[in-house]
Amino acid sequence: MPRPRMTMCMRITRITITAPKIMVEIVVEIMRTILTITMIITITSTARTSIITAIPMLMTTNRPAPAATDGGMTEREAAALYRLMTWLSPSFPVGGFSYSSGIEWAVEAGDIGDAAALRDWLAAMLAEGSGFCDGVFLAHAHRAAEADDEAALRDIAELAAAFVPSRERQLETSAQGRAFIEIARAAWTCDALERTVAHCDGRTVYPVAVGLVSAAHDIALAPTLHAFLHALASNLISAASRLIPLGQTDSQRVLAALEPIVAVTAKRAASATLDDLGSATFRADLASLRHETQYTRLFRS
User: Fold this and answer.
1) Per-residue b or e along 121-139, where b marks 16 or more CB atoms closer than 10 Å to that residue's CB
2) What is the model's pLDDT at position 189?
3) What pLDDT, in 10s, does the model give residues 103-154?
4) CA quadruple 173, 175, 176, 178: dihedral positive or negative?
5) Cα–Cα dist 70/197, whole Å
6) Strand pairing partners for 68?
7) Residue 68 phi/psi, 5° resolution?
8) Alpha-carbon distance 261 to 230, whole Å?
9) What is the C-alpha separation between 124 and 301, in angstroms, rounded?
């Protein structure tokens, strides 16, 4: 009898000793299974997220928005930029190369003799003289044309024509205004332009003409003003380069120096009223008057 008891005790001892090992192994296996399942879920979720994210990226890359061109502009913006660059380019045949706005007399009188003097003269003309006034007329003509306000267009065109300080400047701005409208009308068909031009009774000086044409073609005011003032500065620098004379590099330096003046003047002109019109560049106005009786001349103004 003692022996069987001893055997039972030994078996119980063995079971007691081995049971914890089995439990540990079971727990380990369970943990491994949980970790494996977690990793599979994570990888699957990541893959699904990557696929979902990649699909719109592929769609965006392969199928650009139909309203935009390859350069990121809409078709309307691209057309507006193209037309502004054409209309206000020195090659657009409005005869800008034949006018100096009094600079020819200023060079002969000694007021302008180098790049620095030219820069100061043009900065004053743009910010406080005819440049600012022309910008104001352009802005008001543009808004009146957009609103199809016949009475306002007539008044603005009449005031702009009367605001020119000399006979030669009157000839200059009137001839350029007519040429601008006629050439734009001939190259780009636009029914709205025909209507707005008729409202002005034939009095369309250059800045008013630019305002009418740009508004008729749905071109925004801000870039039109900026391009107009840039073209004005470029034309006068071109005239001065033939008079001083001025080299090509110095001409570009003057144009670069006028960049902030053009930007500020365009912003002022866009927000100015007709009551804000005025000029403080008396010497430039006198130059345009005295050019009429100058003995030798290369330019018409």
Assistant:
1) bbbbbbbbbbbbbbbbbbb
2) 81
3) 999 999 999 999 999 999 999 999 999 999 999 999 999 999 999 898 999 9
4) positive
5) 35
6) 74
7) -115, 150
8) 10
9) 18
Distance of alpha carbon 102 from alpha carbon 125, whole angstroms: 11
Closest to 124 in 3D by CA, of 271, 279, 257, 254? 279
Give me the amino acid identity at 282.
F
Pick the CATH number of 75-292 from 1.10.3720.10, 1.10.540.10, 1.10.4190.10, 1.10.8.50: 1.10.4190.10
- Model pLDDT for residues 231-246, shown as the tens digit of each residue: 999 999 999 999 998 9
DSSP 115-158: HHHHHHHHHHHHHHSHHHHHHHHHHHHHHHHHHT-HHHHHHHHH
Token pair 């350029």: residue = 176
Q: Is residue 250 within 8 Å of 143, Cβ to Cβ? A: no
Bigger pLDDT: 174 vs 36? 174
**Which long-range contacts does 9-17 make (Cβ < 8 Å, 24+ apart)?**
none
pTM for this entry = 0.76
How many whole angstroms separate alpha carbon 133 and alpha carbon 173? 13
**Which whole-number Å values give the CA distances from 219 to 79, 92, 225, in the listed order?**
9, 18, 11
Beta-carbon contacts of 196 under 8 Å, excluding residues fewer than 6 positions away, are: 145, 148, 153, 212, 215, 216
**Who contacts 80 (Cβ-Cβ below 8 Å, separation ≥6)?**
217, 218, 219, 220, 223
Which tokens go with 288?
């345009």
> Could you tell me which residues are beta bridge partners of residue 74?
68
Where along the chain do its domains lie? 1-63, 75-292
Give, as one character, the DSSP assignment of residue 245.
T
Distance CA 200, CA 178 (A): 12
Query: Under a CB-based contact definition with an 8 Å cutoff, are residues 116 and 252 in contact?
Result: no
